[in-house]
Amino acid sequence: MTTPRYDRADASRILADLAGSDLFPTVPWAAPPPVPFRSHRLAAEAGGHLTLSQRLYLERFMRPCTPTEVTSATHRITWTDSAGVPNTGHFVDGELGPVVPIAVRETTLALWRRLDANPGFAARVAALGEGDRAVLDGTTTDRDPRDIVRIGVEAAGRALAQHALLAGQTPHDDAGTFARAMARGGLFTAVASQWYWELQASTYRRGMIPVRLEATPDGTLRYTAGSVETLRRMKEATIAQAHAVMARATGEEGLSVEAAVHRYHDQLDLISRQYALLDPRTRPRCLALPTVLPSVVDAYVETFVAVVARLDIVEEPHDTVVEEPHDTSNVDGDTGGVFHVPDMNCKHCQMTIRSVLEGMDVTVHEVDLESKRVVADFRSPRNRRRALAAVRDSGYTVLAD
């Protein structure tokens, strides 16, 4: 077996070759029956507009960003998608509304099906040589080409749903028009190049976004200059921290590079191959730039526009609960070992959730990325409550069966 090799430029070339010119062949989209959902208002801390979880994350991981630069969702929603998978999302009351996260999920499922229906892509993956596979193994988190593209599709949807929290800062009150204005302004590319992955994923899961939007006269959306500068400073601080942790691990602690990445990636969530192994003079950006991302964005936005126009959603009546995004109300009581983590969306998430549970002496049988299902053995109701609370404290939503 060829030894994994870290090479971001070569990994980008491999992904572009695999994608080809027609990554998502046309497959008819059948609108599902009306989608029922439940919404819950998020509880901001007294004297502020952020929840406790949002504020703590900002203070620990987002300096020099300030609370005034952050927009929070007003509601969290839960629903089951057309594939039968439980989901969660966020929206701002009075703006584009709950249809956006639900339509984003259906768009993601539609593009996944189109990818799986692409025989050319499957053939190119099957023909991939050992050297190219070694580069993907050494450079990417998810490694398998199909998983990489699927997660790229999901990341495009995540960016769209998250930026929809800012629709009130724009002239757009239609979800499809908003998505197209995002694409015209290069905001999907901005996420891939100016954000760092952990910030984007973690703030998305918490229903917050640390940027401001401005519209050009034709309605195209872009970040304010202040937002660009804040993102730059946060990214540089994260890169500096990653290099500092790696230098200490391979120097003072005497670990090999692979051992250092494994220890701190799993235990402290401070470093990853994205930054820890990067040349200090280089600033990372998405491996899909500049070749694959445009085709993903074009397909995503146009599919989303079609989906949102035909999607029917219905809010289920229920007792309104004011809650944090990761409350314990729906997971107390027994030792049932099956639950879902709907905002788990990459191999890193899988590793984090497994590591958190095993750190609580929980036996983990399954952490499945596609179904978002986790199967584990809990010793007692108290062990279950504490373990699921630890998963929530890591930034994930827990939905128990």
From TrEMBL:
- In its keyword annotation, does this UniProt entry include Metal-binding? yes
Q: Which domain of life is it from?
A: Bacteria
Q: Which CDD domains match?
A: HMA
What sections of the protein cross the membrane?
Answer: none
**Record's keyword terms, sorted:** Metal-binding
**PROSITE patterns membership:** HMA_1
Fetch the InterPro entries from UniProt: Heavy-metal-associated_CS, HMA_dom, HMA_dom_sf
Q: Does the keyword Metal-binding apply?
A: yes
Q: What is this protein called?
A: Heavy-metal-associated domain-containing protein
Species of the source: Micromonospora maritima
